[in-house]
Amino acid sequence: MLTRAEVLLVLVAAVHVFLAPYTKVEESFSLHASRDILALGLSPPAVAQYDHIEFPGAVPRSFVGPLVLAGASYPFLALANAVGLITTGLAAQTLLRLVLAALSCASLIFLARRVRDSFGASTAQTFLLLTSTQFHLLFYASRTLPNMFAFPLVQVAMAMIVAPWVKRTKRGKGSVVEVLESFAVLTLAAVVMRLEILAFLAPLAFESLSKGVVTLSELIKVGIVATVASVGLTVGVDSYFWGEWVWPEGAGILFNVVEGHSSDWGVSPWHYYFTSSLPKIFGLGLPFAFLSVLIDRRARRIAYPAFTFIALLSLLAHKEWRFFVYAIPAINICVASGVESLRFLYSKRSKTVALAAIILSNLLLTSVALYASVNNYPGGEALVRLATHAPSSPHPQNVHIDSHSAMTGASRFLHPFESPSPWFLSPPSSSPNWTFNKSESLSLPSDFLAFDFLVTGHPDRHLVAFDVLDAVEGFARFRLTGKPVFEESVWIMRRKQKDPKA
């Protein structure tokens, strides 16, 4: 049975999905891969129609995560379709993201229960309350990013490290079986999904070695076996989908780190994570993480590796908080431990006041960030509205979606009247078949005359041949007074009809 704190965690993650059901461009590969697996199947002719064939991206990504998500979502999509709950692509996309959110929450609940075993029930409950009221982690728990496919695996591994199961060997020595298994799981997550996890694995391994929890020979044996198995898995699966021998994470590290292309996406100062990202994520709770390091040796076992991981990532020029998302629960455990320590250092009342202040500040920051984020997907909203402008003519319609719209929520799940209609949707009756084009090579106004509709962020370029049907606003900023400012961001345009009298 789930505790009330665990139920709260799941409900908050689900609310984030329902309030912001659209996705951004960085989620598109895994989202579309999951959609194509479900809608088209796995045969070679089906794979040839996948979205990544036309839009491969800068580096190849792994299909292992999307395969797992599609497989886990299939029975729920089939059941929902059977009872008539899935009638739109947005509903199918929402259900898919709810499944991923459930996997993320399950791993956090597993971690929380191991925290209870090691730190106590009160610390575990505080950990869940902190996680539920912070914005970043649960808002991204359902996002189809490689980071979030790896996230549940890392949390399961962390749970094994926080409170491992100790087995006695015949030699009479204690063998911490789950610690070794945790390093195998971390290796799998790194090799298959996000190679930067190795920078988390390394300090965790050093901590276990320095405390005598595992031996170097045990660690090497597990590392070799897990690496070979993980490389075999990803190369075998992904080479099939990409049509050539490939190790996606290896190709990604070569492109972004070795060749230095990650800086093409922006450069931040070395201290950015510690002076900007961590304070935004943890708010008033961050000082209590450092307090726990000073007074709780259990917290030090996970705090040192977590902060070392973030420090190692700081050596890279391009920085995004999601790169260290795997360490957020570990630091939250430290925050919870620090808050709980106030009961013994001062009084129970001081702990209650501190926790209330942290939660209230979390809720305030979350409400502001969530309001801005919910209104930041004009491309997705535009595609949903596009269906309302469907002509009564049975003739096929051609639609062009520009890069701005695709980057702000216009996923393939949302294409109205696309042919063939996926099995998990009720086919629209007496509606035309629409085709969609996301080519970025079109530049001249005349290049767009083959399209009936445009979903674009630049209507001024097409006013000669197209009429504006609708405009979708997106969140722009907050005024100093706190009032939100919205600006028109994506426009739906229809090609002008020739005058029959002309």
List the helices and strands and how they pair.
Elements (H helix, E strand, L loop, with lengths): L3 H16 L8 H13 L3 H4 L3 H4 L9 H19 L6 H31 L1 H13 L2 H5 L5 H17 L3 E3 L5 E3 H16 L5 H13 L5 H27 L5 H11 L13 H11 L3 H10 L1 H17 L14 H18 L2 H27 L3 H9 L10 E5 L1 H5 L26 E4 L15 E4 L9 E13 L5 E12 L7
Helix pairs in contact: 1-6, 1-7, 2-5, 5-6, 6-7, 6-9, 7-17, 7-18, 9-10, 10-11, 10-12, 11-16, 15-16, 15-17, 16-17, 17-18
Query: What percent of the residues sit in helical stretches (DSSP H or I)?
Result: 55-70%
Please list the strands of the largest sheet in the order they lie side by side: 4-3-5-7-6
Instruction: Based on Cα principal axes, name the global outline.
Output: globular
What's the β-strand tally? 7
The biggest beta sheet is recorded as: 5 strands, mixed
Structural class: alpha/beta
Estimate the mean pLDDT confidence: 91
User: How many DSSP H or I helices?
Assistant: 20
Order of helices and strands: HHHHHHHHHEEHHHHHHHHHHEHEEEE
Beta-strand fraction estimate: 5-15%
Alpha-carbon Rg, integer: 25 Å
Low-confidence stretches: 170-174
Distance between the termini: 73 Å
